[in-house]
Every structure is written in structure tokens, then in C-alpha cells.
């Protein structure tokens, strides 16, 4: 089995008397989508925030690519390639496909967006941007404004921009939220492609998407992982059915 990219060991976090994270251990392995599901208030977002460095756990530790990252803040963790989302909102509608991807390449290099204009004429950004555009199936569309892209092409642009950030792992907290059925369907296809570039820890309430995408699922209830397994194992698990999936599973 390949070494995990991300490992959580015995993480715990309380808010007053409430144990939002209760001795959670799990890992994320290369090439996989590991979904984190559970009822409202189970502690999914709190866990993601501890991985991203936005909340400090009371105890336990997070290892990323073999390195303990407990002392790093969110910016340093992002710089190591721990991508908190794939920054869909960062698409600039008035910029072309090439310009948008160049900005993402520039962002990955840690440069500031204050220098947006020089970036757009920087040849060092053009070559990697064109590579990601081609890799995402958008070649020939470099000079089209993002606002004028067809729906599916816009998703391809988001993939190109995500890849330009050179992520080593994605932490996605409810990426399907607020999307219609078509959007969720598109995003499902995108995530299935992205996981081969970088594994994804996915918090998602849309069970159709989770069951279609996840290689493994962990179920969180009252801050505790009550089960981790494949889609089939989780669907059949009596404790999961009782505490979360109900009769729908
Ligand atoms: N900053 C905070 N201060 C106090 N309590 C908090 C804080 N953040 C979260 N909580 C509590 O911790 C528990 C876990 O919340 P969290 O948002 O992590 O759950 P969740 O599984 O992501 O829920 P949902 O599915 O509704 O998004 C909840 O009871 C919540 O009210």
C-alpha cells in the first residue's frame, strides 16, 4: 500500500464542554478520494480546519508528506501543496483562459496579486500555463474570455487553474453546496479527474456524489470516526445505517 500523503493521529478539539473532534485518526492516500460524511454538527468542518491550520487541535498531530505540520499556519501549509479548495471563485471573467491560468501559475509561485499587470506579460508564466491548458483539454481556447466559455469549458478552466497551483492534496468542504443538479454532475466528473493529480479529502452532504466518487468513506458522529471503509462496506455497516444513513442506504 502506498504511503499516505496526509495522516491525522489522535486529533481532539473541544469547544467548552463540547468535543467537536474526539480522537480522530485517518489518512489520505495517493490517487484516492476519501470522503468524510456525518450528520450536521458531527465535526466535519472543524476537522478540515484543523488540517488546514485554521484551528489548532487540543492534542494529536497532522503529518503531510512525512512532515509534522502542527506548528505551521494556513499559508505555510498551502505553500506545501495542501489546497484548501480549488479556488473556483478566483476565475476572473474578463480575463482570457490564458491570463487566468497564468495568474494561477503566479499564485503557486507565491507572488502577490498586486503585481497582476506585469504577470500578464511575463513569458515565464506563459509556458507552464499553456501546458496546463492543454492538459485540461482547452487548447485552442487560450484567447477566449472566461465569461464567454461554455459551461463545461469553464469547468475545464477551473481544473487547469487547480493544477497550476501544483497541489499535493485537496481539502474540499462541501464543494457541491449551492450547485444545481447539472453543476454537481460536472463537478463530480472534475473531481474524478483531479484525484489522479492529487488525492482529495472530501466533506460532502450529496450522497449521490459521495457514493459515485469515494474510494473510501469515513463516518463521523459526535466528533468520532465510527467507521472507515469502501462505499459497499459503509452502505452495509449496521452502525452507520443506524446513526446516519437511516433507511435510505
Ligand atoms: N468556533 C466554535 N465555537 C464553538 N462551537 C463550535 C465552533 N465551531 C464549531 N462548533 C460546534 O462544533 C460542532 C461541530 O461543528 P462542525 O461545523 O465541525 O460540524 P459539521 O459536521 O461540519 O456540520 P455541518 O454538516 O452542519 O456543516 C457543532 O456542534 C458546532 O456547533
Automatic annotation (TrEMBL):
It comes from the Bacteria. GO terms for molecular function: ATP binding. Keywords: ATP-binding, Nucleotide-binding, Transport. InterPro entries: AAA+_ATPase (IPR003593), ABC_AA/LPS_Transport (IPR051120), ABC_transporter-like_ATP-bd (IPR003439), ABC_transporter-like_CS (IPR017871), BCA_ABC_TP_C (IPR032823), P-loop_NTPase (IPR027417). Gene3D superfamilies: P-loop containing nucleotide triphosphate hydrolases (3.40.50.300). Residues 6-247 form the ABC transporter domain. This is ABC transporter ATP-binding protein. It comes from Albidovulum litorale.
Amino acid at each position: 500500500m502506498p504511503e499516505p500523503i496526509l495522516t491525522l493521529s489522535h486529533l481532539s478539539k473541544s469547544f467548552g464542554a463540547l468535543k467537536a473532534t474526539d480522537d480522530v485518526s485517518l489518512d489520505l492516500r495517493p490517487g484516492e478520494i476519501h470522503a468524510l460524511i456525518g450528520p450536521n454538527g458531527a465535526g466535519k468542518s472543524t476537522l478540515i480546519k484543523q488540517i488546514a491550520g485554521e484551528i489548532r487541535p487540543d492534542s494529536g498531530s497532522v503529518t503531510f508528506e512525512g512532515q509534522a505540520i502542527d506548528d505551521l499556519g494556513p499559508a505555510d501549509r498551502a505553500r506545501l501543496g495542501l489546497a484548501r479548495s480549488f479556488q473556483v471563485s478566483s476565475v476572473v471573467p474578463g480575463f482570457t483562459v490564458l491570463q487566468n491560468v497564468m495568474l494561477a501559475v503566479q499564485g503557486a509561485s507565491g507572488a502577490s496579486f498586486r503585481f497582476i499587470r506585469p504577470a500578464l506579460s511575463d513569458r515565464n508564466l506563459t509556458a507552464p500555463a499553456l501546458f496546463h491548458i492543454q492538459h485540461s483539454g482547452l487548447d485552442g481556447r487560450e484567447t477566449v474570455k472566461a465569461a464567454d466559455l461554455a459551461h463545461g469549458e469553464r469547468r475545464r478552466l477551473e481544473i487547469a487553474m487547480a493544477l497550476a497551483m501544483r497541489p499535493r492534496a485537496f481539502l474540499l468542504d462541501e464543494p457541491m453546496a449551492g450547485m444545481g443538479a447539472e453543476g454537481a454532475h460536472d463537478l463530480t466528473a472534475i473531481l474524478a479527474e483531479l484525484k489522479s493529480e492529487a488525492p482529495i479529502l472530501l466533506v460532502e452532504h450529496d450522497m449521490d456524489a459521495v457514493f459515485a466518487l469515494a474510494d473510501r468513506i469515513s463516518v463521523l458522529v459526535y466528533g468520532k470516526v465510527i467507521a472507515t471503509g469502501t462505499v459497499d462496506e459503509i452502505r452495509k455497516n449496521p452502525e452507520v445505517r443506524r446513526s446516519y444513513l437511516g433507511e435510505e442506504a
